[in-house]
Write a structure and sequence with these properties.
Radius of gyration: 19 Å
Number of helices: 6
Distance between the termini: 22 Å
Helix content: 40-55%
Shape: globular
Strand order of the largest sheet: 1-2
Order of helices and strands: EHEHHEHHEH
Largest sheet: 2 strands, antiparallel
Structural class: mainly alpha
CATH topology: Recoverin, domain 1
Length: 142
């Protein structure tokens, strides 16, 4: 954990006495990320009916980077072909190293079906987690 000093007057306002506080950087981001991981795990349990591998889910979520904090980029629109092409090209081919000759579109369709076609908010981290498990690429996050 990295520690850093911040000017206390930014927190309390200029009318308060100025000073400095020692805060752990990323402390809020860590709890926010943990909250999201718990939300994703609950989605896997309730919508898919599986018990998630929490270690893998955490690693996949971290691998998604800051996109998990943005309302639009944190989800995958299963009905938008350009979105599905992005999942295929940026995640399956570039990140997991799969070849385009494999049935990537079929795997994405299977994951979307498993997650629930009527479910409008398919979390990107959960989709990536399911695709990782589908292709047996858990070792990529080892």
């Amino acid at each position: 954990m990295r520690l850093g000093w911040i000017n206390h007057s930014y927190i309390t306002g200029p009318s308060r006495r100025s000073g400095f506080l020692l805060l752990a950087s990323g402390e809020n981001a860590m709890s926010k990320r943990d909250d999201l991981i718990a939300k994703y795990a609950e989605d896997i349990k309730t919508k898919i009916g599986e018990t998630p591998d929490m270690d893998l889910l955490k690693k996949v979520t971290i691998g998604c980077g800051p996109s998990i904090y943005n309302k639009d980029s944190s989800t995958v629109a299963g009905s938008d072909q350009s979105e599905l092409d992005t999942v295929k090209n940026n995640f399956l081919i570039k990140k997991l190293g799969l070849s385009a000759s494999q049935d990537l579109d079929g795997a994405i369709a299977a994951v979307m079906e498993k997650y629930g076609k009527s479910n409008p908010s398919k979390y990107r981290a959960v989709v990536y987690y399911l695709l990782t498990k589908h292709f047996g690429k858990e070792s990529h996050y080892g």
